[in-house]
Design brief:
CATH architecture of chain A: Up-down Bundle
CATH architecture of the largest domain in chain B: Alpha-Beta Complex
Structural class of chain B: alpha+beta
Strand content of chain A: under 5%
CATH class of the largest domain in chain B: Alpha Beta
Distance between the termini of chain A: 48 Å
Order of helices and strands of chain B: HHHHHHEEHEEHEEHEEEEHEEH
Oligomer: heterodimer
Number of strands of chain B: 12
């Protein structure tokens, strides 16, 4: 929990002028930093299940909700900086951004998905929605893909950073598919052996 | 107002050339001879070493009625927040890696469809012209802007000197190509930098190039251009997005057909040949309706032709600027 606050503290201190401040274009830098850490937080949340399966450490699963909410908080902060600092609540500009710029559209869609997941993250919601909850919360994979697209469509000519995020996301989602396939084959083999 | 009669080369070279340059070139000639460099460099021995010696030195120039009286963007901001992909894609890369740009020696070739082509050492290319200060708005396609006091001279002097032939309709520019030194031009970086086609190329229609607002800049504030701003000589076209103002020029060519340009080749649907600042033609990534002036917090409305509409709109009479963006 505390570790996940460190990037926020770091960005906050730079905003106040420490560690070289935010440079010549502070608003752009603030968007960049908050976006990068939102992406990282989302990838960390997506890494929980693969890491648990890989290491077999069951307690890691208990971090899942907290890390998901942390990712949501970072994405929300990034969106609020866009809305309140960059566009200064100029609703006409917000409208144009949301209708004309594909990278903003997918970024916004990712935030909406994460909002739904955050709202249904309580134990009560989980019990009430049952199987629907599992289905709904698979939306986080979609949010991850949209977030990478957001970076990709934003890049002018340097694709090194987005390539890294795309590779990590592919690894994390690929692990799930591989793990599933592996389990199914094992279950199948067991069934055949007992028959 | 737009058409002015020019006095050409009325004063002697020692008056026109910045005094520092004039004084320094002798020192360097002496030093160069002592080291045998003058011999090795042959005919260029005299002209070559001056630019490096000039770095950080003051230029002499006249003010211009074309300058804006808006507040200038601070020198440190103009020289530390740049797009110069030859040094890398980051805004601070150009300053960090400024030393990778080798400006000594520097030769400029003027050729193509003209009667008086030539190859010049940069000092000889610059020295015939008296320098002017042009304080221009600079609008980057990424949605930020600055106000920059350039020092330079009008490109039309070079064009008149070269005597373009009747079939010359465009001017093509080419910048330095030095993948051994410039990290952004190294082949292994090409994949991650979107496969940009080096060297940087740009172009203007001949009438745009002749326009008195179009200058070749050799200085910034009252100093010789820092490397990260396009030393030793760059184009400045204030009514177009910043990327049209090609840096570190080595080749100027008169051509008949619209020349290929780097960003247009990379993403033709995003960067047109004209690339006039136009709040009505949007870009998929950056709003062109508004811009953030560096040093200010709130965005401001972007003006047609970056506020130079009165001077340049007639160049595009009858053209659909949504089609020719």
């Amino acid at each position: 929990m505390l570790v996940s606050l460190l990037p926020a503290v770091w960005i906050g201190l730079r905003t106040l002028g420490a560690f070289g401040g935010l440079g010549v274009n502070p608003v752009e830098k603030l968007l960049e930093l908050s976006g990068t850490h939102a992406m990282i937080a989302l990838l960390v949340a997506l890494a929980v299940t693969p890491v648990r399966q890989w290491t077999g450490l069951a307690w890691i699963a208990r971090l899942r909700r907290m890390l998901g909410l942390v990712a949501f908080a970072y994405v929300t902060a990034h969106a609020l900086i866009w809305l309140g600092v960059d566009l200064f609540f100029d609703w006409e500009l917000v409208f144009y951004d949301l209708t004309e710029r594909p990278f903003v559209m997918v970024g916004f869609a990712a935030w909406v998905i994460l909002l739904l997941l955050a709202l249904t993250s309580t134990g009560a919601a989980q019990r009430r929605l049952r199987r629907k909850w599992i289905w709904l919360h698979r939306g986080v994979y979609v949010a991850g893909v949209l977030a990478v697209l957001h970076f990709l469509w934003l890049a002018r000519a340097d694709y090194a950073e987005v390539a890294l995020y795309a590779a990590i996301l592919t690894l994390l989602l690929g692990w799930r598919i591989g793990h599933r396939w592996h389990n199914r084959r094992r279950a199948h083999a067991r069934r055949r052996a007992s028959a | 107002m737009l058409i002015r009669i020019r006095r050409r080369s009325e004063c002697s070279r020692s008056e026109v050339t910045p005094r520092e340059l004039y004084a320094r070139r002798r020192e360097f000639l002496r030093a160069g001879m002592g080291l045998g460099a003058g011999l090795a460099l042959g005919g260029f021995g005299l002209a070559v070493p001056a630019t490096a010696a000039l770095r950080g030195h003051t230029l002499e120039f006249e003010p211009s009625p074309f300058s804006t009286d808006e507040a200038k963007t601070a020198y440190d901001e103009v020289t530390s927040y740049n797009n110069f992909f030859e040094m890398g894609p980051g805004k601070s890369d150009p300053k960090t890696y400024a030393d990778q740009l080798k400006t000594d020696p520097w030769t400029i070739t003027v050729d193509g469809l003209c009667d008086n082509p030539g190859e010049y050492a940069v000092e000889d290319f610059i020295s015939p012209w008296s320098l002017e200060e042009r304080i221009y708005r600079m609008r980057c396609v990424e949605g930020w802007s600055m106000v920059i006091p350039w020092i330079g001279f009008e490109l039309n002097r070079i064009i008149e000197q070269a005597k373009p032939r009747g079939d010359a309709r465009y001017v093509a520019f080419e910048a330095i190509h030095d993948p051994d030194n410039l990290r952004g031009q190294r082949p292994r970086r090409r994949a991650s930098s979107g496969g940009l086609q080096w060297p940087y190329t740009e172009g203007l229609r001949l009438d745009e190039a002749m326009h008195p607002l179009t200058i070749l800049a050799v200085g910034l504030y009252d100093e010789v251009l820092p490397n990260q701003n396009g030393a030793p000589i760059r184009l400045v076209v204030p009514w177009k997005y910043g990327f049209k103002s090609i840096k570190s020029i080595q080749h100027i060519r008169f051509v008949e057909d619209e020349p290929p340009t780097l960003w247009n080749q990379a993403q033709p649907d995003e960067y047109g040949f004209y690339s006039n600042v136009n709040p009505n033609v949007d870009h998929p990534r950056w709003s062109q309706r508004t811009e953030r002036r560096i040093g200010e917090f709130r965005r401001q409305r972007t003006e047609m032709f970056n506020g130079y509409e009165e001077e340049v709109a007639s160049l595009y009479d009858g053209m659909d600027l949504r089609e020719y963006f």
